[in-house]
Amino acid sequence: MKKVRCIVISGYGTNCEVEMAYACKLAGGEVEIVHISELIYGEKSLDNYHFLNFPGGFLDGDDLGAAKAAANRWRFGKIKTTGEPLFDQIMRFIKEGKLILGVCNGFQLMVKLGILPGLRFQYALQLASLTYNDSGRFEDRWVFLKLDPNTPCVFTQGLDKLYLPVRHGEGKFVVQDENVLTAIENNHLAVLKYTHPETEQPTMEYPFNPNGSISAIAGICDPSGRLFGLMPHPEAFLHFTNHPHWTREQLSEEGMGLALFHNAITYIKQNIL
Ligand SMILES: NC(=O)CC[C@H](N)C(=O)O
Protein backbone atom coordinates (compact mmCIF):
# COMPACT_ATOMS: atom_id res chain seq x y z
CA MET A 1 0.00 0.00 0.00
CA LYS A 2 1.30 3.50 -0.83
CA LYS A 3 2.64 5.37 2.19
CA VAL A 4 2.03 9.01 3.07
CA ARG A 5 5.39 10.73 2.61
CA CYS A 6 6.02 13.53 5.12
CA ILE A 7 8.89 16.00 4.91
CA VAL A 8 10.05 18.11 7.86
CA ILE A 9 12.33 20.99 6.90
CA SER A 10 15.38 21.62 9.11
CA GLY A 11 18.27 24.05 9.01
CA TYR A 12 19.33 27.61 9.82
CA GLY A 13 17.89 27.55 13.35
CA THR A 14 14.97 25.10 13.48
CA ASN A 15 14.71 23.22 16.81
CA CYS A 16 11.44 21.24 16.73
CA GLU A 17 12.02 19.04 13.67
CA VAL A 18 12.58 15.82 15.65
CA GLU A 19 9.31 16.16 17.58
CA MET A 20 7.43 17.09 14.39
CA ALA A 21 8.89 14.08 12.56
CA TYR A 22 7.96 11.83 15.50
CA ALA A 23 4.37 13.15 15.37
CA CYS A 24 4.16 12.31 11.64
CA LYS A 25 5.54 8.82 12.36
CA LEU A 26 3.12 8.18 15.25
CA ALA A 27 0.27 9.24 12.94
CA GLY A 28 1.32 6.58 10.41
CA GLY A 29 3.34 8.60 7.93
CA GLU A 30 6.72 7.84 6.39
CA VAL A 31 8.85 10.81 7.40
CA GLU A 32 12.16 12.43 6.48
CA ILE A 33 13.87 15.38 8.12
CA VAL A 34 15.38 17.27 5.17
CA HIS A 35 17.81 20.19 5.52
CA ILE A 36 16.73 23.08 3.29
CA SER A 37 20.16 22.92 1.60
CA GLU A 38 19.26 19.46 0.27
CA LEU A 39 16.39 21.16 -1.60
CA ILE A 40 18.52 24.12 -2.70
CA TYR A 41 21.23 21.81 -4.08
CA GLY A 42 18.64 19.68 -5.88
CA GLU A 43 19.34 16.52 -3.83
CA LYS A 44 15.70 16.38 -2.68
CA SER A 45 12.47 17.85 -4.08
CA LEU A 46 9.10 18.70 -2.53
CA ASP A 47 7.55 16.91 -5.51
CA ASN A 48 8.28 13.57 -3.80
CA TYR A 49 6.24 14.28 -0.67
CA HIS A 50 2.57 14.74 0.34
CA PHE A 51 2.82 16.59 3.68
CA LEU A 52 5.25 19.50 4.23
CA ASN A 53 6.10 20.47 7.83
CA PHE A 54 7.74 23.74 8.85
CA PRO A 55 8.89 23.28 12.50
CA GLY A 56 9.51 25.77 15.26
CA GLY A 57 12.80 27.34 16.17
CA PHE A 58 14.78 30.52 15.64
CA LEU A 59 15.39 30.67 11.88
CA ASP A 60 18.45 32.81 11.19
CA GLY A 61 18.27 33.81 14.84
CA ASP A 62 15.07 35.78 14.10
CA ASP A 63 17.49 38.57 13.17
CA LEU A 64 15.22 40.43 10.70
CA GLY A 65 12.12 39.54 12.73
CA ALA A 66 11.08 35.93 13.22
CA ALA A 67 11.40 33.84 10.02
CA LYS A 68 11.74 36.86 7.68
CA ALA A 69 15.15 35.84 6.31
CA ALA A 70 13.88 32.29 5.81
CA ALA A 71 10.79 33.60 3.99
CA ASN A 72 13.09 35.48 1.61
CA ARG A 73 15.18 32.34 1.14
CA TRP A 74 12.04 30.40 0.08
CA ARG A 75 10.66 33.32 -1.93
CA PHE A 76 13.77 34.22 -3.93
CA GLY A 77 16.11 31.22 -3.64
CA LYS A 78 16.83 29.09 -6.73
CA ILE A 79 17.74 25.40 -7.07
CA LYS A 80 21.51 25.40 -7.75
CA THR A 81 21.38 22.59 -10.33
CA THR A 82 18.35 23.67 -12.35
CA GLY A 83 17.85 27.36 -11.58
CA GLU A 84 14.21 26.64 -10.69
CA PRO A 85 12.86 29.09 -8.08
CA LEU A 86 12.30 27.28 -4.77
CA PHE A 87 9.00 29.14 -4.57
CA ASP A 88 7.80 27.34 -7.71
CA GLN A 89 8.18 24.03 -5.83
CA ILE A 90 5.98 25.36 -3.03
CA MET A 91 3.39 26.67 -5.52
CA ARG A 92 3.34 23.31 -7.34
CA PHE A 93 2.99 21.50 -3.99
CA ILE A 94 -0.02 23.69 -3.12
CA LYS A 95 -1.63 23.37 -6.56
CA GLU A 96 -1.39 19.57 -6.30
CA GLY A 97 -3.65 19.76 -3.23
CA LYS A 98 -1.01 18.65 -0.74
CA LEU A 99 -0.78 19.68 2.93
CA ILE A 100 1.47 22.23 4.66
CA LEU A 101 1.67 22.66 8.44
CA GLY A 102 3.67 25.47 10.05
CA VAL A 103 4.21 25.50 13.83
CA CYS A 104 5.37 28.68 15.59
CA ASN A 105 8.48 29.75 13.62
CA GLY A 106 7.02 27.66 10.79
CA PHE A 107 3.76 29.62 11.03
CA GLN A 108 5.72 32.89 11.03
CA LEU A 109 7.50 31.62 7.89
CA MET A 110 4.22 30.81 6.08
CA VAL A 111 2.72 34.22 6.91
CA LYS A 112 5.86 36.12 5.87
CA LEU A 113 6.12 34.00 2.71
CA GLY A 114 2.60 35.13 1.88
CA ILE A 115 0.97 31.68 1.68
CA LEU A 116 -1.16 32.33 4.80
CA PRO A 117 -3.92 33.51 5.05
CA GLY A 118 -3.64 32.59 1.38
CA LEU A 119 -6.19 35.08 0.16
CA ARG A 120 -3.96 36.05 -2.75
CA PHE A 121 -1.09 33.62 -2.15
CA GLN A 122 -0.23 33.18 -5.84
CA TYR A 123 1.25 36.67 -5.64
CA ALA A 124 2.94 35.85 -2.32
CA LEU A 125 1.56 39.04 -0.84
CA GLN A 126 2.25 39.31 2.88
CA LEU A 127 -1.12 40.34 4.34
CA ALA A 128 -0.44 39.55 7.99
CA SER A 129 2.38 39.09 10.45
CA LEU A 130 3.36 37.78 13.86
CA THR A 131 5.02 40.47 15.89
CA TYR A 132 6.41 41.02 19.38
CA ASN A 133 4.29 39.90 22.31
CA ASP A 134 2.53 42.73 24.15
CA SER A 135 4.36 41.58 27.30
CA GLY A 136 7.69 42.35 25.62
CA ARG A 137 8.83 38.97 26.91
CA PHE A 138 9.31 35.45 25.56
CA GLU A 139 6.15 33.59 26.63
CA ASP A 140 6.43 29.91 27.57
CA ARG A 141 3.18 28.43 28.96
CA TRP A 142 0.26 26.13 28.17
CA VAL A 143 -2.84 27.78 26.74
CA PHE A 144 -6.52 26.89 26.31
CA LEU A 145 -7.71 26.97 22.69
CA LYS A 146 -11.15 26.82 21.07
CA LEU A 147 -11.59 25.73 17.47
CA ASP A 148 -13.99 27.16 14.90
CA PRO A 149 -16.43 24.34 14.13
CA ASN A 150 -17.03 25.81 10.65
CA THR A 151 -13.39 26.09 9.58
CA PRO A 152 -12.29 24.42 6.32
CA CYS A 153 -9.04 23.43 8.10
CA VAL A 154 -8.23 19.79 7.31
CA PHE A 155 -6.06 19.38 10.41
CA THR A 156 -8.68 20.23 13.02
CA GLN A 157 -11.77 18.44 11.74
CA GLY A 158 -13.70 16.87 14.61
CA LEU A 159 -11.82 18.80 17.29
CA ASP A 160 -13.52 21.25 19.66
CA LYS A 161 -10.82 22.50 22.01
CA LEU A 162 -7.14 21.98 22.66
CA TYR A 163 -4.67 22.56 25.50
CA LEU A 164 -1.18 23.08 24.06
CA PRO A 165 2.11 24.83 24.94
CA VAL A 166 3.31 28.07 23.40
CA ARG A 167 6.95 29.24 23.48
CA HIS A 168 7.60 32.42 21.51
CA GLY A 169 8.64 36.07 21.56
CA GLU A 170 6.81 37.15 18.40
CA GLY A 171 3.41 35.50 18.56
CA LYS A 172 1.08 38.51 18.25
CA PHE A 173 -1.02 37.97 15.13
CA VAL A 174 -1.67 41.23 13.26
CA VAL A 175 -3.07 42.04 9.81
CA GLN A 176 -2.35 44.61 7.13
CA ASP A 177 -5.84 46.11 7.38
CA GLU A 178 -9.39 45.49 8.57
CA ASN A 179 -10.37 43.93 5.21
CA VAL A 180 -7.92 41.09 5.79
CA LEU A 181 -9.33 40.41 9.27
CA THR A 182 -12.89 40.52 7.91
CA ALA A 183 -11.97 38.03 5.17
CA ILE A 184 -10.29 35.74 7.73
CA GLU A 185 -13.30 35.78 10.05
CA ASN A 186 -15.98 35.56 7.33
CA ASN A 187 -14.26 32.56 5.69
CA HIS A 188 -13.68 30.84 9.07
CA LEU A 189 -9.91 30.90 8.52
CA ALA A 190 -9.24 31.80 12.20
CA VAL A 191 -9.04 28.11 13.05
CA LEU A 192 -8.20 28.41 16.73
CA LYS A 193 -8.32 31.15 19.33
CA TYR A 194 -6.86 31.67 22.79
CA THR A 195 -9.67 31.20 25.28
CA HIS A 196 -10.31 31.87 28.95
CA PRO A 197 -10.31 28.62 30.98
CA GLU A 198 -13.54 29.53 32.81
CA THR A 199 -15.66 31.19 30.12
CA GLU A 200 -14.15 29.06 27.33
CA GLN A 201 -14.57 32.17 25.16
CA PRO A 202 -11.88 33.88 23.06
CA THR A 203 -10.03 36.35 25.25
CA MET A 204 -7.58 39.22 25.05
CA GLU A 205 -6.79 38.73 28.76
CA TYR A 206 -3.13 37.99 29.54
CA PRO A 207 -1.78 35.37 30.14
CA PHE A 208 -4.62 33.32 28.61
CA ASN A 209 -3.92 35.28 25.42
CA PRO A 210 -0.12 35.18 25.81
CA ASN A 211 0.78 37.72 23.13
CA GLY A 212 -2.15 40.11 22.48
CA SER A 213 -3.10 38.62 19.10
CA ILE A 214 -5.99 40.47 17.50
CA SER A 215 -9.30 38.62 17.80
CA ALA A 216 -7.34 36.16 20.03
CA ILE A 217 -6.15 34.37 16.88
CA ALA A 218 -3.70 31.53 17.62
CA GLY A 219 -3.69 29.90 14.19
CA ILE A 220 -5.11 30.31 10.68
CA CYS A 221 -5.64 28.26 7.55
CA ASP A 222 -6.02 29.20 3.91
CA PRO A 223 -9.43 28.94 2.14
CA SER A 224 -8.66 25.36 0.98
CA GLY A 225 -8.01 24.30 4.59
CA ARG A 226 -4.88 22.45 3.43
CA LEU A 227 -2.41 25.11 4.61
CA PHE A 228 -2.42 25.62 8.37
CA GLY A 229 -0.20 27.57 10.75
CA LEU A 230 -0.42 27.99 14.50
CA MET A 231 1.70 29.41 17.31
CA PRO A 232 0.95 26.61 19.82
CA HIS A 233 3.05 23.43 19.51
CA PRO A 234 0.92 20.30 18.80
CA GLU A 235 4.10 18.23 18.38
CA ALA A 236 4.90 18.96 22.05
CA PHE A 237 1.81 17.12 23.28
CA LEU A 238 1.82 13.65 21.70
CA HIS A 239 1.70 11.54 24.87
CA PHE A 240 0.06 12.04 28.28
CA THR A 241 3.47 12.36 29.93
CA ASN A 242 4.02 15.59 27.97
CA HIS A 243 1.15 17.18 29.92
CA PRO A 244 2.22 19.34 32.88
CA HIS A 245 -0.26 17.60 35.21
CA TRP A 246 0.26 14.02 33.99
CA THR A 247 1.23 12.77 37.44
CA ARG A 248 -1.96 13.97 39.08
CA GLU A 249 -4.69 13.99 36.42
CA GLN A 250 -6.33 11.10 34.56
CA LEU A 251 -5.40 11.73 30.91
CA SER A 252 -5.85 9.83 27.63
CA GLU A 253 -2.75 7.97 26.44
CA GLU A 254 -2.50 10.11 23.28
CA GLY A 255 -1.73 13.80 23.61
CA MET A 256 -4.17 16.26 22.04
CA GLY A 257 -1.59 17.47 19.52
CA LEU A 258 -1.41 14.10 17.76
CA ALA A 259 -4.98 14.48 16.44
CA LEU A 260 -3.81 17.17 13.98
CA PHE A 261 -1.29 14.76 12.47
CA HIS A 262 -3.80 11.90 12.38
CA ASN A 263 -6.21 14.16 10.46
CA ALA A 264 -3.46 15.12 8.01
CA ILE A 265 -2.45 11.53 7.26
CA THR A 266 -6.10 10.44 6.92
CA TYR A 267 -6.85 13.32 4.53
CA ILE A 268 -3.91 12.40 2.30
CA LYS A 269 -4.86 8.71 2.24
CA GLN A 270 -8.46 9.60 1.30
CA ASN A 271 -7.75 12.41 -1.17
CA ILE A 272 -4.25 12.10 -2.64
CA LEU A 273 -2.92 8.52 -2.59
N1 LIG B 1 9.20 28.17 19.41
C1 LIG B 1 9.38 28.91 18.29
O1 LIG B 1 9.33 28.43 17.15
C2 LIG B 1 9.74 30.37 18.49
C3 LIG B 1 9.45 31.22 17.27
C4 LIG B 1 10.21 32.51 17.25
N2 LIG B 1 11.65 32.23 17.34
C5 LIG B 1 9.72 33.40 18.40
O2 LIG B 1 10.38 33.47 19.42
O3 LIG B 1 8.66 34.00 18.29
TrEMBL record:
GO terms for cellular component: cytoplasm. GO terms for biological process: 'de novo' IMP biosynthetic process. SMART domains: GATase_5. InterPro entries: Class_I_gatase-like (IPR029062), PRibForGlyAmidine_synth_PurQ (IPR010075). Gene3D superfamilies: 3.40.50.880. Coiled coil: none annotated. The keyword Transferase does not apply. PROSITE patterns: GATASE_TYPE_1. Signal peptide: none annotated. GO terms for molecular function: ATP binding; hydrolase activity; phosphoribosylformylglycinamidine synthase activity. Keywords: ATP-binding, Cytoplasm, Glutamine amidotransferase, Hydrolase, Ligase, Nucleotide-binding, Purine biosynthesis. SUPFAM superfamilies: Class I glutamine amidotransferase-like. The keyword Mitochondrion does not apply. This is Phosphoribosylformylglycinamidine synthase subunit I. It comes from Desulfofervidus auxilii. The lineage of its organism: Bacteria, Pseudomonadati, Thermodesulfobacteriota, Candidatus Desulfofervidia, Candidatus Desulfofervidales.
